[in-house]
Amino acid sequence: MENFDLTGLNEKIKSESTFIDKLKAELSSVIIGQDELINKLVIALLSNGHVFLEGVPGLAKTLTVSTLASLIDTQFQRIQFTPDLLPADLLGTLIYNPKDANFEVKKGPVFSNIILADEINRAPAKVQSALLEAMQERQVTIGESTFPLDEPFLVMATQNPIEQEGTYPLPEAQVDRFMFKILVDYPSETEELQILQRMGNITNHIEVKPVVSAAEILSARKVVDQIHTAENIQKYIVSLVMATRDPEQYGLNDLAPLISFGASPRASIFIATASKARAFVAHRGYVIPEDIRDVSRAILRHRILLTFEAEAEDVTTEDIITRIFESVPTP
C-alpha cells in the first residue's frame, strides 16, 4: 500500500462513520431480523446506488424503506405503482397558466431524495421507463427543460414475485440500473415471535427521529471514495464478472450453455463501489475479498440472464453465482 496513508484514512472513517451504528441500531429497533436487508440499504445509501427489493407481501419491505427515510433528514416520497399510473404522475408536467398566458412546470413526486416505488411491476413499461433518466442521470426532463435532482437521490423499488396477474416485467435496461437486487425472505421462528411481541398491539407504533443529515451522507461518500482497493482485489472483481460472460475460462464449462448473457461493466463498477462502502461500514480503510463476496451476490443476481436450458434444469442465478465464487481464485 505504497503512498497510502492508512492511519489518516482510518481517522477520517472514524469521524465520518459515527452515524452508521446509530442508523443501523434505530432501524433494528423497528425491523426485527432482516439484517441482510438493513446492511445492504446502508451500503446503497453510501455508494449512491438504487435498490430493488423482491419478496412476498408482509415481510416489511415498505416499512424498512420508510423507516430508513424517517431516520434521514431528507425528503421522502412513496409512490404506489398502479396500471393506470402515467409518466406525468411520476415526473410532473407542464400546466397552462391563463393569467400569464404561458406554461408552468408542475414537478412530480420524483423530485425528492428517497423514492419508494412500491410494487413497481404493477405499472406499464412506459411508467417504469420514465424513471430511467432520473435513476441514471439524476435529472428529469419536462417539456424542453431539464432539472437536476437533489442529492442524495435513491430509488428503492419493491416487487411481489408470486403475483403475475396485472403485472408487467421490468425492462432489462431499467433492472440493470439497480445496484442491488435483495431477496427478502421469511423471518425465523424466534424472529417471528419477537415481531408478534413487538407489533401485536393495535395501538403500538414506534416513532423514530432523524439521526443523520443529507450533508453527513454526502460527506461520508467522499471518504468512501478514498478507501483503498489493491490491484489484486480489483483483478478479483473483474474475474468474477468475466466468469459470468466466459465461464469456460475459469473451468466452468458446464455453465456455458446455461448463461444467455453475463454481467455488464456496470456490475464491476458497482461491486468496487459497494465493497468500499462495506469497508467503511466496518470502519476499515481498505477492501478485502470478504467485502466483495458480500456485495457481489446482490449485484450479479439480476444481471445474469439464463437460457431455456437452465430453466428446464431448474438452475437459478444463485446456483451459478455460488459456483463462480467457488471457482474463481480468491486473492
Structural class label: alpha/beta
Portion in strands: 15-25%
Overall shape: it is globular
On the 0-100 scale, what is the average pLDDT?
88
Element-by-element helix/strand order: HHHEHEEHEEEHEEEHEHEHHEHHEHH
Across the major sheet, the strand order is 3-6-9-1-10
**Treating each run of at least 4 consecutive H or I residues as one helix, how many helices?**
14
Main sheet properties: 5 strands, parallel
Cα separation of the termini: 15 Å
Give me the count of strands: 13
**Rg, Å, rounded:** 21 Å
Using the coordinates above, name the CATH class of the largest domain.
Answer: Alpha Beta
Assign the CATH superfamily of the largest domain. Answer: P-loop containing nucleotide triphosphate hydrolases
Commentary on this structure:
With 331 residues, the protein is α/β, with parallel strands linked by helices. The chain folds into 2 domains: 21-219, P-loop containing nucleotide triphosphate hydrolases (Rossmann fold); 227-327, Magnesium chelatase subunit I, C-Terminal domain (Helicase, Ruva Protein, domain 3), CATH 1.10.8.80. It has helices spanning 6-16, 18-30, 35-46, 61-70, 87-91, 125-137, 172-175, 189-199, 214-226, 231-245, 265-281, 289-300, 308-312, 317-327, and strands at residues 50-54, 72-73, 76-80, 92-97, 102-107, 114-118, 139-142, 145-148, 154-159, 178-183, 212-213, 259-261, 305-306. The strands form 5 sheets. It has a 5-stranded parallel beta sheet. A hairpin with a 2-residue loop joins strand 7 and strand 8 (145-148). Helix 2 (18-30) packs antiparallel against helix 3 (35-46), helix 3 packs across helix 11 and helix 9 (214-226) packs across helix 11.
